[in-house]
Amino acid sequence: MSPRPRALRLRSIPLGIAFLAPSVLLTGCFSAPPQIVQLNPPAGSTQLDANVPVEVVFDQPVVHQSVASHLSVAETLSPYAGLPGCNVAGAFTAKPGGPCWVTWLSGGSGFVLHHPGALFAPNREYTFDLRAGVTSVGGNVNSLDHVWYLTSAAAPLLTSSTPSDGASIPRDAPLVLSFSRAMSEPAVAAAISLSPPVASLKVVRNPLDLGQFEVIPSAPLAPSTAYTLRVSRQATDAFGQPIRAPITLHFRTTALSVSGHLVVLAGPGLGEATEVVLAQLMAPAAGLPIPTEVLDAVPSCADPAGCGEVGPGQPTATIDAATVSPGARWLAVVQTDATAPGAAPLLRIINVQTGLDQLDLQGATWPAWSPDGSTLAFVAADSSVQLYDAQTESLSELHAGSPPSGPPVWTADGDALAIPVAATATSPAHVDLADPALSARYQLPGIEGSAAGLVAAPQGEELAMEVIPSSSALPTTWVANPSSGQPPLKVGTSLTPVGFTDDATLVVALSAPPSAPQLGRLEIATGAVTPIPTPVGDADPDSATVAPSGRQIAYITRTGTGAEEAVIANADGSGALALTSLAPGLQALSVHFGG
Questions:
Q1: Matching fold, domains 8-151 and 158-254
Q2: Which CATH class is domain 158-254?
Q3: Any idea where the domains of the chain sit in the sequence?
Q4: What is the spatial distance between Cα 455 and Cα 462, in angstroms, rounded to a whole number?
Q5: Extended strands (E) in 122-163
Q6: Domain range 8-151, CATH architecture
Q7: How far apart, in whole angstroms, are the C-alpha atoms of residue 166 and residue 84?
Q8: What pLDDT score was predicted for residue 17?
Q9: N or C terminus of the chain with fewer C-beta within 10 Å?
Q10: What confidence tens digit (pLDDT) does each residue in 491-512 have?
Q11: What is the pLDDT of residues 164-184, one digit of tens each?
């Protein structure tokens, strides 16, 4: 092989003398021929972007045509290819916007070669040859050739992927691609496809790592299905260089992940939820969003004449509640038909793996899954509390009692159900405890009044609730542990329980003005409240919820644009992240942990 050429070579005289010429040989009227005094990128530069502009500066103004007719650019090695689609001589008269063009510096003593549509080939050395004949505006002719070399960067490569080729992943697992350098978000998004196809794919670039992308399907992928993720050579780096070769990743899906989820109800407005959105509890990497996918949605009216009370293209039902079982095997949805006035709610119990309804119950509402995810408690149309064993597909009814006034709540050990009940002619409002195994049901001692905000501790049978007694309008917060034998403990007033972080600490919604903290951490033993910051938007404290682990909270917030979105954070309020980024016209209406 021939020896590596020097970065810049002037034929006939040494390089040093050539660059001394402007400072030693010139006079104020430029009696010497024009010489190059600056190159950008410098001669000999490597790892250059594919579309990097090349700037050449002379020591004096030059005749433009004399440069145009003497400059050539080509690969140093055979086949000595030039810039594809670029006529270098023609670039000096070309208008901006073509494959390549030249702009002149102020005063005419230098130029810039732009070539966004005539890219350097990857990992190639290019020879720039400005042959003798460049003429100054004063008529002095340079009799030397100027030759220098620039080397382009390698094509971008896929450095890692989730999933890897041949892997099996949960059907809602994040899909992440990482490249060797910063990439063009529009180009990568256009280059990605999934087979079998899905309704839509959202491709998001990581602002902290411009070579990393998350691919988010609009809905969880089909279970037990072989998929192929392809990235065509339409994907380019941030400077237009395509990837070296198409990328193909094969993977297979399993069931939904069992590490826990957030369930968000979304719709066009308050009380008009039309979608059940499923979200992971954490982002796949710092800077990437938490993936959210539509698990279930009500159909729209397809009849051009309308569907009863609903116009064409409008949702035919609204979703009142939704909860995913621990282990993510079943989804319980309560929805109300919007096509007919006065329709009763419908409880649908859906097998998430098949997507089929396992049981539909007219008039049922307030579903609640047991901690092991096998049994659904709900309030039937006749106000009885019933249990559905999703594994055996059997129904049973709890011991009769006063009609419930809110959803039943399982204790953490799954042994009991706490049921807020309404007042009757013979009994004031109170909270019942039911033991499904014994078919027993009795009033929780020491608590009387209308109960709301009923939540269970992460262990044992400890409960917290806000109660309005019949003798007062002041809401009082109580903590009770039926198994302890101790009377309930009054821990404060106007503190609505949100959930336990542990057996000794309760997250509460505060009755505070909008500018003050809306959530707090209540130490049960002392009654001390520590504010929890909610830095993302204007948080709605009544929407807040606590994870079964006690380590995270979620809530609905109004963003600066007026959109209602869900947010997830650590239990102390730190690390808050936007959970949803819904399409225009949709709002996040509620959020709950589950699955």
A1: yes
A2: mainly beta
A3: 8-151, 158-254
A4: 9
A5: 125-130, 146-151, 158-162
A6: Sandwich (2.60)
A7: 38
A8: 33
A9: N
A10: 999 899 999 999 999 999 998 7
A11: 999 999 999 999 999 999 999
